[in-house]
Amino acid sequence: MTGPSASHLAQRDERTRVILLVGQSISLGIFASLLLITANSLFLSTFGSAALPYAYLAVAALGSVTFYALATIQRSWPPPRLALLIDLSLVAAALAGWLALVAGLIWASFLLVVAIPLVIQAGFVVLGGQVGRLFDVRQIKRLFPRVVFGFATGFMLGGLLSGPLLGWLGRTENLLLPTAAAGVLMTGFLLATTRRYSNDLAPIARPRRQQKAKSLPKLLTRRYALLIFSYQMLAALTSQLLNFILLDRSGARFATSEALARFFGTYNLVLNLTDMLFLALLAGWILSRFGLGLGFLINPASGSALLVVMLAAGALLGPASLAFFVLIALTQLLNIVLTDGAMRTSLNAAYQALPADERTAVQTGVEGIGLPLAIGFAGLLLLIFRALNVADILTVTVVTMAFALLWTGGGWLVYRGYAHELLQTLRRRALGSEPLTLDDRSSLDVALSLLDSPEPAKVRLGLDALENAHYPELGSRIAPLVSHSNPHVQIDALERVAQLRIGEARAAVIATAQAGADDSVRAAALRAWCALDGTGAISAVLPALSTPNATVRAGAVQGLLIYCGGAGRAAARPALENMVASLIPVERATAATALAGVPEAQSSGPLSKLLQDPDPKVRQAALHAAGGLRSPAIIDLLTDGLADRRTRSAATTALAASGIATLPRIELSLADANEWADGTSERLVRVAAQIDSPAVTELLSKHLEHQHPPVRTQVLEALRSRGYHAAGQEAAAVNTALHNEAQHGQALLQIRTSLGSAIEVAALQSTIADELGAIRHRMMLLLSLLYDRQGMQRAEDLIGSGQGATRSLALEGLEVMLSGEHRALLFPLIIQDGELAEIEPLSLVDPLQALIQSPAVAFPPAWTQACALYAAGRLRLAALRPYLEAAAANPDSDVRATANWATRLATDIAN
C-alpha cells in the first residue's frame, strides 16, 4: 500500500528539483545573453577590437584568481552560502556596471567583456554543485541535460528580448538592468532550492583518504590526459581567435552600440536555434553512424576548410567585404554548434576512458585551467602581432587557420589515444559500466587489431568482442589462428571452429591434428575435425585412439562421442572404458575431461564412477565435466562434492549448470535437519541463487521463515541477489517474517538488558550481540524484498560502517524510505542507547531460564543456549537446576556437554 504512494512522492519530488534547477539555468542563460550583447556592443563601439587582447589577458588573470579564491572559500563555507555569494556577486556586478556606465565611466565596458566567460563558468559552478547533491549518478545522467538545455533556452530568450528591451530602454547600457533582474530571478530560484532541500545541500563530512591523491600537475602530464588538455587548449584558442575576428569585423561594420546590440541579439538567436536543432536532430545520429573519430575531427576540420575560403575571400575581396563578414559569422556559428553537438560528447567519452578516480580531477583541470589559459594566450598572441606590426585581420586569420590545423592533428592524436584506452575498456567489457558494442569503426578496428597480438589474452579478447558483436567475417579471421605460434591461441581458435563449424579452417585443422607439436592442441584439432566432418572423420581419427598419449586419446574420444553419431560412439567406447578403469589417476582424470559436453546418455555411467573416485583431482575433473547433467543420481553425486572443500567449488559450478534439475534435491535438503547442521543446505541455496529460473524464486520464497537461522539467512540473501520483489500475498508473507524476526530481536534485547555486565555473562552477551546482528541483517534482507533493493543494501553497509556521520546519513535514508510500521520494527534493533548495568545474580534467573528452555534449532540458536548454560554454571544458580538437567538431553552436543557441566556446579552449591 505504501509502495505506489512512495513512488509517486519520489517522482513528484524529482520533478520539483528539476524545475528549480532549470529555473536557475534559464535565468543564468538570460543573464549571460544580455550581458554578452551589452558588453560586446559597448566595448567595440568604445575601444574597438584593438583592445580585445588586453581583455583576453585579463580573463586569464582574473579567472585564475577568481576560481582559486572560490576553491579556497569552498573548503570552509557550506555550498548554499557559496552559491548565494556567487549569485549576489553577479547581480552586484551588473548593477555596478550600469551605474558606472551611466556615470560616464566608459572603462566599465572593458570589465564587462572580461566578466562574460567568468560569469558562465561561475554559474555552472553553482548549478553543478547543486546537481551533485540533489541527484545520484543515474539521475544526473538522465536529468542534467535538461538543466543544460535550460541554459540554452535562456540564452536564446535573452537574444529575443534584447531587441524589444533596447527599443523600450533606449540606451545599450540600460540592458544591464534586465540583466540584473535575471540575476535576481536566478537568486530567487536558488533560495527556494536551498530552503526546500537544505539537508541535501548541507556539507557532508568526507572520510579520510586511504592513500594520497595524485596532484593535478601529475595527472595532466600523463600522456592521454595531456592529449586531451592540448586538444581542449587548441579548441579554445582557435575559438577565441575566431571570436576576435568576428568582433573586429562587427565593430567595423556597425558604427553604434545600438546597431551592434541588435546584430548580436539576432546572431545569438540564430546561433541558439541552430544549436538546439543540431543537438535534437543530428548530433546523436552523426556520432552513432560515424563514431567518435568524426566527433573529434569534424569541428577542427570543417573550421580549417572555412578558414581557407575566408582567406581567399579576404585576399580577393578584402576583409571589409560582406563575403568575408558572412564567412566569419558562419564559421563561428558552426564552431559553437559543433562544439556543443560533437566535440563535447566526444570529449566526455574521452574522460570516461580515464580511471574513475582521475576523471573529475582531469576534467576540472582542463576546463578550469585550460580554457582561461587559452584565452590569455590568444590575447598575448594578438599583442605580439601588434608589436610586430602584423596585426591586420588577414594575418590573424592565417594564424587562426594554423591553430585549426594543429587542432585537427590533435583530434587525430586524441582519437588514437582513445583507441589505446579502449583496449583497457575492452578488458572490462564496459565503458562507464555501459555494455560493449562495436557499432563504430574505431571500436571494430581496435578489436581486429587485437587478433595480431602475440599475447593470447588479447587475441581471446578480440575474438570474444567480434563473436559477441556477430561480426560477419569472423570465420575468415579465426581460420589463420589455428596455425598460430602460441598453443593457447590455437586451442581457443580450434574450440571456436568446432563450436561455430568454420569450414574455412578445415585444412589447417587436419594438418594440426596430424602433426601438431603440442598434445593439447592436437586434442583440440581432433575434436574440431570431428565437428567439421562428422562420421566422415571416424576413419581418420581412429588411429589416435591407440596413441599412448592420454591427452590426444581423450581429444579423439570426445570428438567421436559428441560429433560422430552412433558409429563414432561405438568406436570410442572401448578406449573410454579403458581410461575410466585405469589404475593411473591422471588417465582417469583425462577420461573425465573427455566426457565434457558428451550427451548424458553416453556420459552418465562413466561419470558416476569417476564422481566417486578416491582421488580428489579425478572427482574435480568429473565435476567439471558433469555440469549440465540432469539425472537425479548424478545430481546426488554432485551434491556429495559439496562436502569436500577440495571439490566444493567445482561441485557448486556443476550443480548451477544443471539448472532446475537441482531444485528437487535442494527442496529435500531444506527439509533435512542433518543437512542444516553440516552446511549442505546453505551451500545448495547458494547454488540455487545462480540458477536463472522463476521456479527458484518460487521455491525459496516458501522458506522465508526457515527453521534454521543460517539457512534462513542464506535464503533471504539468495532472494535479494535475484532481485526478488514481493507483492500481494508474497508481501504479506514477508511482512509476517519481519514481525517474527522483530519479536525475536525484541526478546533478545530485553534479555540482554536484564543480564547486565557481570563477567560471568560476558560470553553470553557477546553471543547475544552476534545474534542481534544476524537478526538485523535478516530484517534488512526482508525489507529489501519490499523496498528498493540497492538502497536497503547501501543503508545496511553504511550503518555497519560504525562512523557517526555516515551512520546518521543511512538512518535518515531509512527514515524516509520505510513506512512507519517497518521503522517501528527495525529501529529499536539498530539504535541501542545506554550502557549495561550491574545486575544481582538472583535477578539473572528469569532471563537465563528463557534462553535455556528454548528449542535448540528454533530460537535462540544452539550456541546461544550453550552460552546461557555456561553463564548459569559460572553463577552457580541452583534455582535453574531443573532446566539444566532438562538441557542435558538436548540433541546438540555443545548444549548437552555444557548442561552437564553446569548441572554439576549447581548440584555442588545445593549440597
Description:
The chain has 911 residues and is mainly alpha-helical. Helix 1 packs antiparallel against helix 10, helix 27 (616-626) runs parallel beside helix 29 and helix 35 (729-755) packs parallel to helix 39 (820-830). Helices cover 77% and strands 0% of the residues. The protein has a two-stranded antiparallel sheet with strand order 1-2. Among the domains are: 14-200, Growth Hormone, Chain: A (Up-down Bundle), CATH 1.20.1250; 219-425, MFS general substrate transporter like domains (Growth Hormone, Chain: A), CATH 1.20.1250; 840-911, Leucine-rich Repeat Variant, CATH 1.25.10. The radius of gyration is 38 Å and the shape is flat. The protein contains 43 helices and two strands.
The biggest beta sheet is recorded as: 2 strands, antiparallel
Cα-based radius of gyration, to the nearest Å: 38 Å
Number of helices: 43
Mean pLDDT: 79
Q: List the uncertain runs.
A: 1-5, 205-211, 425-436, 833-839, 855-859
- What multimeric state do the chains show? single chain
The CATH class of the domain at 219-425 turns out to be Mainly Alpha
Structural class: mainly alpha
In CATH, the topology of the domain at 219-425 is named: Growth Hormone, Chain: A
Strand order of the largest sheet: 1-2
Per CATH, the superfamily of the domain at 219-425 is: MFS general substrate transporter like domains
Which architecture name of the domain at 219-425 does CATH use? Up-down Bundle
